[in-house]
Amino acid sequence: QGRPVKVTVTGAAGQIGYALLFRIASGHLLGPDVPVRLSLLEIPQAVKAAEGTAMELDDCAFPLLAGIDITDDANRAFDGANVGLLVGARPRTKGMERGDLLQANGGIFGPQGRAINDHAADDVRVLVVGNPANTNALIARSHAPDVPADRFTAMTRLDHNRALSQLAARLDVPVTAITKMTIWGNHSATQYPDLYNAEVNGKIAAEQVDEAWLRDTFIPTVAKRGAAIIEARGASSAASAANAALNHVHDWFNGTPEGDWTSVALSSDGSYGVPEGLISSFPAVSRGGEWHIVQGLPVNPFSRERIDTSVRELIEERDAVKELGLI
Ligand code: NAI
């Protein structure tokens, strides 16, 4: 076994944290042979709860878990970090305007971005889960000018997995029959799950479902699944979000399977007409520890309009945080 990989998790005492940490420590983030050292960042009021979770982690006696640090200081939490999972965020509460929400999250993701810039390992890779994930990632990235921009990503893997599962159920096929699924745009209700490039047993998915189902059932079900989970469970998705975060980072380190791709919100290089620098979801493959946007996919007028709508929302969020001086 080599040197442990340092994984920093923010919001470690939250719901997703509880579903995430035990699986990281059991090898589901990086692989079954990679030892990890966990660094848990929480706000002062939640440090004690994080300590309780750490006690349980100890009690699992995970062979791969090399140690756990807990702190409320971002500089310490990210010191030497190889992986940053930015889960903790300020949720929207009743009566809160969008500007207030962005401001509150700017106060979290700005300092964390700077702490990553100043203290993380040179190879640091960051996944932002906390919402609004794309724009929080943009804020963090803008405070880390010394870190290559492509190390900052946001999570649309849960949306991707939801799309796989909905389509598989509709066609009564295993999820493994589906390849080349894409979520485009923002991790929000405007996201666009694309069946015109997805394949089921090697054939275009959109040709195997009727258009009305695609438009009126599939897309809204995937896009509004988060709200449906809250409605049913009385709490937002946690285990499935943690699972998607593990999938995202696992693929980043270990590569995506040959002949397939996944969905990642990453810094646009201008591909598919998405303005450069915006953190938007794309079809992407991972090779050698780097994401590459899949190029040259056909985008029909229906898809174009959906992608543009979601990207417009991202531009508005970017302009709003710029106006607030957060980037
Ligand atoms: P939660 O409220 O259970 O936990 C959040 C934790 O973050 C709390 O323990 C809180 O003390 C902590 N926290 C707040 N500010 C912090 C800071 N500055 N530094 C460190 N920790 C801080 O929330 P939950 O359910 O774990 O969700 C976390 C985030 O993930 C939310 O923003 C949620 O909207 C988002 N989410 C994103 C998904 C995606 O697909 N991208 C899917 C599901 C949730």
Automatic annotation (TrEMBL):
Catalyzes the reversible oxidation of malate to oxaloacetate. SUPFAM superfamilies: LDH C-terminal domain-like, NAD(P)-binding Rossmann-fold domains. NAD(+) binds at residues 11-17, 105, 112, 129-131. This is Malate dehydrogenase. GO terms for molecular function: L-malate dehydrogenase (NAD+) activity. Residues 156-322 form the Lactate/malate dehydrogenase C-terminal domain. Belongs to the LDH/MDH superfamily. MDH type 2 family. Its EC number is 1.1.1.37. InterPro entries: L-lactate/malate_DH, Lactate/malate_DH_C, Lactate/malate_DH_N, Lactate_DH/Glyco_Ohase_4_C, Malate_DH_AS, Malate_DH_type2, NAD(P)-bd_dom_sf. It holds the Pfam family Ldh_1_C. Gene3D superfamilies: Lactate dehydrogenase/glycoside hydrolase, family 4, C-terminal, NAD(P)-binding Rossmann-like Domain. Substrate binds at residues 92, 98, 131, 162. The active site is at residue 187. The keyword NAD applies. The gene is mdh.
